[in-house]
Amino acid sequence: MKKFIIALFCLCSFSYAVEYDALQGKMLSLSCASCHGTDGKSTTITPYIAGMGKTIMYQTLLDYKNGKRTGTMMQKHVKGFTDAELEQISYYFSKVER
Ligand code: HEC
Which Pfam family, any one, appears in the UniProt record (predicted)? Predict the structure, then answer.
């Protein structure tokens, strides 16, 4: 019974579609501003991430987190966020005008 409940829980959490929470997205995105500029509009050599596609950004962030992609900073930074938070952040930047 216990296993069944755990399995059910896993199934539910997988099928749960994350809804966009604009306030949370904005709050979390502030931690990126120090390097990527306000709203991701970088004016330095750090990549310009404003308006980046949501799916591609989310996948990129997951790749950094899982070590599939490496960089100087990013893999350390993303480890502080849950996958759901990274998805909110990706939503946020995708909605910023380039
Ligand atoms: C300490 C500085 C720093 C912070 C903070 C930071 N980044 Fe980055 N980011 C970088 C650098 C530098 C790169 C280039 C790859 C590398 O060297 O890690 C990069 C690369 C990226 C890329 C890949 C861009 C591309 O076109 O390949 C994405 C997406 C990204 N960052 C998103 C974010 C998000 C979202 C946050 C906030 C959660 C964030 N970054 C916070 C420095 C930072």
Answer: Cytochrom_C
Residue in the structure block whose two tokens are 């750090």: 46
Residue 40 lies in a domain: yes
- 49: in domain: yes
| Residue 81 φ then ψ, to 5° | -120, 150
Q: What is the pLDDT of residues 1-23, one digit of tens each?
A: 666 666 655 555 554 556 899 99
Residue 26 beta carbon below 6 angstroms from any ligand 1 atom:
no
The total domain count for the chain is 1
Read off the tokens for 85: 């938070």
The reply to whether the predicted model has a pTM over 0.90 is no
- Segment 18-66, tens digit of pLDDT: 689 999 999 999 999 999 999 999 999 999 999 999 999 999 999 999 9
31 CB under 6 A from ligand 1?
yes
Span from the CA of 82 to the centroid of ligand 1 (angstroms): 16
